[in-house]
Amino acid sequence: MDIFLQQLINGLTLGSVYAVVALGYTMVYGIIQLINFAHGELVMIGAMVAFTLIGVLVPAGMNPLVIVLLATACAIPVCMLIGYAMERLAYRPLRRAPRLAPLITAIGVSIILQHLALLVWSRNNLAFPQIIKTVSYHIGGATITNVQIAIMVMSVVMMAGLALLVYRTRLGTAMRATAQNAQVAGLMGIDINRMIAVTFVLGAALAAVAGVMVGSYYGIAHYQMGALLGMKAFAAAVLGGIGNLPGAMLGGLTLGVVEALGAGYIGDLTGNVFGSNYQDVFAFLVLITVLVFRPSGLLGERVGDRA
Amino acid sequence: MALIGIVLVALPFALSQAGTAWVRITNLAILFTLLALGLNIVVGFAGLLDLGYVAFYAVGAYAYALLASPHFGLHLPFWVILPIGAAVAALFGVLLGAPTLKLRGDYLAIVTLGFGEIVRIFLNNLARPVNITNGPQGITGIDPFSISGVSFAKTDTFMGAMISGPMKYYWFLLVVLVAVIAINLRLQNSRIGRAWEAVREDETAARAMGIDTTQIKLLAFAMGASFGGIAGGLFAAIQGFISPESFVLVESIMVVAMVVLGGMGNIWGVILGALLLSFVPEILRYTVEPLQKAVFGRMIVEPEVLRMLIFGFALVLVMLFRPAGLLPSAVRKRELAERKA
Asked: In whole angstroms, what is the distance from residue B179 CA to residue A287 CA?
């Protein structure tokens, strides 16, 4: 029971991060049906920028909390800018091209970003500065740290903010209209190109924050950290029903919990034939299973075959 | 034709003047060409983007390594193992294809990517409880090829000329390459090849014409995979050592980049793409390093990083400015021109 509770807490923490990243995938997919393969790299760059800034600011002797918030506040615009550039240069010219074309440029962008990051931040594992002192609380035999609580709270706040923006503002209405039918939305006087750019930029901002969250949770930043995380978040988005915002949140949390519980129990269930080193397999198994049995995901509507 | 043949056969003598390393590099380039041709069946002919192609390469390589190394004490000859490797890889292709082929193109791409990762994770971890793959350490001491007692690993003297191991592999690879090209050319214009093209252009219409689309797509996966398996077996023999590190996602993407750059669906284009993306980075390795040291006094951009940046930019720029590749296939070209209009 203790293990269960502990893994649940770990799973929900990781799941909140997946959910935030998955939102970026789902928003972009919802509006232009593109799998933005390079989205994971934005998470990585967010973490890296924050890492650098924290390193610079710590000697200045400021309050640790202020430093982290400042670093996040700087990482966000950097990622937004890259997200915008990505859309403008690599995806917009291909909006009418066959489906696979933008997917291939997305892979290219992902490789370019990874290796530019390698040039800037080296190929080493960078120790993410743990400037906020970790405090552990005990509940029913399991421990939860203040970092975990902060991650969960942050992600809930961001999801709520995004939901407000998308469902309660004029901008959100215009975005949803574009997602539903770009042509008609254009006829209604909505600047479609702007809406698509806004979607990318919003997703990038979320990715930046997610980067800081992952960095401070694992205590490590690496130029390839975004690839696997991105794929898992994509799996989460598909699990929830791609194109569907509440779906991405649900999918992220579910995937996090499945992964944590899976890693916690796989050893016992298989008589130690498989161990927790198979943790990364779960996300892909979930992805394949969902796509085969319920391609529309948990909350998605049926998507027609538009290949 | 005959002239090209003579040049290709004599090439290793010229290359070994520049150092045996260049013969090895050429061998790797041919291996990648084989991979690119195999992937071209899946991506170019049938239009299914496979981002986990390296999994089949890995399966072939491990099949060879397990059947011809001290790891299990098995030492079967290569002409027995290569077909086994191809068959096992094809089986994996069907295993991956069967549940996923009804997915739409971009979903399929991601699932294949996940499949590649799953294979790699298993290779990394199948050292316990039964040691099958020897985990991250990989398998060493893999037997080289040998034909009637002549080992491919040693240097021999034949009619006064030094014949090094890599040179022997080069000729073997050349034969395999010619065979694979011939198979591909025949396939392209066969009933199967035309069915693939039909599925690629319009699946619904193809089905209406009586093509069993699932079968034909599965066939593409299996055939592409079997070529990957053969290339993997050759790789294991040439290197003598394999580990899961050789089969990471980046390798898959490299092969995709070769196919895309050269021209999806055009055999000669794919060969050009594979050779370009194999040799240019190597040439850069020998020029960029001294150049940087001379100009800046130290290394700023490692050749390895530069190589990956070239791959990345190749993918993006080709898609933006020449979506059909350097040597486009005629059908693709027409198709792209029509869509733009």
From this structure: 38
Report ipTM for this prediction.
0.84
**Topology annotation, domain A2-293:** ABC transporter involved in vitamin B12 uptake, BtuC (1.10.3470)
Lowest mean pLDDT among A165-174, A290-299, B78-87, B156-165: B156-165
Q: What is the DSSP string of A169-232?
A: SHHHHHHHHHHH-HHHHHHTT--HHHHHHHHHHHHHHHHHHHHHHHHHHHSEE-TTHHHHHHHH
The CA-based angle A96-A99-A105, given to 5 degrees, is 90
Which of A104, A112, A291 is facing B111, going by the closest CB pair? A291
Give the separation between CA A138 and CA B216, rounded to whole angstroms: 58
Asked whether residue B328 is domain-assigned, the answer is: no
The answer to whether B125 contacts A116, with C-beta atoms less than 8 Å apart, is no
A238, A266, A288: best to mutate for the B interface, most B CBs within 10 A: A288
Of A112, A278, A291, the CB nearest to B312: A112
CA distance A300 to A291: 12
d(CA B41, CA B31): 16
Task: Indicate whether B205 belongs to any domain.
Answer: yes
Q: How far is CA A198 from CA A174, A183, A201, A203, in A?
A: 11, 17, 5, 8
**CA–CA separation, B24 vs A91, rounded Å?**
38
